[in-house]
Amino acid sequence: MSKRIDSTPKADGFRMPGEFEPQQQIFMIWPERPDNWRDGGKPAQKAFVDVAKAISEFAEMTMLVSASQYQVARKMLPPQIRVIEMSSNDSWVRDCGPTFVINDKGGIRGVDWKFNAWGGLFDGLYFPWDQDDLIARKICDMERIDTYRTEDFVLEGGSIHVDGEGTVMTTEMCLLSPGRNPHMSREQIENMLKDHLNIEKVIWVKDGIDPEETNGHIDDVACFVRPGEVACIWTDNKEDPFYETCMEAYETLKEATDAKGRKLKVHKLTMPEVPVTIKGDFAIDEVEGTIPREDGDICIASYMNFLIVNDGVIVPQYGDRLDGLALEQIRDMFPDKKVVGVNTREIVYGGGNIHCITQQQPKV
Ligand code: KQY
Asked: How far does the centroid of ligand 1 lie from the alpha carbon of residue 139, in Å?
């Protein structure tokens, strides 16, 4: 069994690397809960298979799946993808999985943040979340990786992006939300990030674009392309529901400096032309304790929720007129990588996207 370490990554010389640094493998969790995924998860499962296949061209890929869906997943996934039975409450391994930290001697450890389904009993998205909260520990046990557990501090992986050189980016909307760590001041929250990611500087973006769902995760708004460079969502359309948020985030990042004192270069990344909405007959089970999906709901479809994986970037596509522009803009940001688009409308209907359903283990 791997050990729980009663210290912090910073004290032990471990840091969270940027997503653009070398990766060993990617984890995903198979979607199946019928109160989140329409039609019993069948359309979403196909989309997850497409994402997993795209990733497996660039890194080892592990799919975690419940006992009852094991054979289904094993049959739908190609042999190069490892399938492991593991219980969960849903499929958001970015948020309930470990944040891996590495040192310069080839060591790797996991940060096992407390998980409360994006707000616990205050405004969480489902109940219970006990199996999700065990995922980080189980993954680290499986990989024989020691962990740090933050028993008094709630955090999801989708709410942070780092440059691997001392800077983290996050949103006030999420990290200061009453459903996370209401007992802590902003300064105490910054200190937790500093100690567990080994960073010196927090860049606070005000809002995210999904207040109702994750309380505004940064991974729909902005990310580090490389140290000193970030991407930020953008639209010229004043009617776009996210226009104000895009402008505000862009201005904040344009003004920001990182831990090394660099002024950031900010790449604009378009929003889709037509927001994705829930339309027509959506067969989703209604269950007390789970936020219902309703006709006309705007889904959170941002091209920003891509995954950087070694020599590839896996990018959401929606069948929107601006899909091609998004791919082009991302190719300009990563001229040495292969940019692969995958249609993720079905994942968006469930409340997230490629970055939300993946978690990378860095290579050491
Ligand atoms: O996007 C995410 N990181 C998680 C969203 C959870 C949605 C549950 N319906």
From this structure: 20
Q: Provide the b/e sequence for 54-86 (b: ≥16 CB within 10 Å).
A: bbbebbbbbbbbbeebbebbeebbeeebebeeb
Ligand 1: which atom is nearest the Cα of residue 352?
1
Whether the CB of 217 sits within 6 Å of ligand 1? yes
Protein residue whose Cα sits closest to atom 3 of ligand 1? 356
Whether the CB-CB separation of 102 and 94 falls below 8 Å is answered with no
- Whether pTM > 0.90 for this model: the answer is yes
Over residues 144-161, mean pLDDT: 98
Dist. CA 356 → ligand 1 center (Å): 7
Using one digit for the tens of pLDDT, what is the confidence trace for 61-119?
999 999 999 999 999 999 999 999 999 999 999 999 999 999 999 999 999 999 999 99
| Centre of ligand 1 from the C-alpha of residue 291, in Å | 11
- Region 317-332: mean pLDDT is 97
Instruction: Supply the pLDDT for residue 286.
Output: 84
Q: Where are the domains positioned within the chain?
A: 9-362
Closest ligand 1 atom, residue 291 Cα: 9
109 lines ligand 1 (CB under 6 A): no
Task: Look at the domain 9-362 and name its fold.
Answer: L-arginine/glycine Amidinotransferase; Chain A (3.75.10)
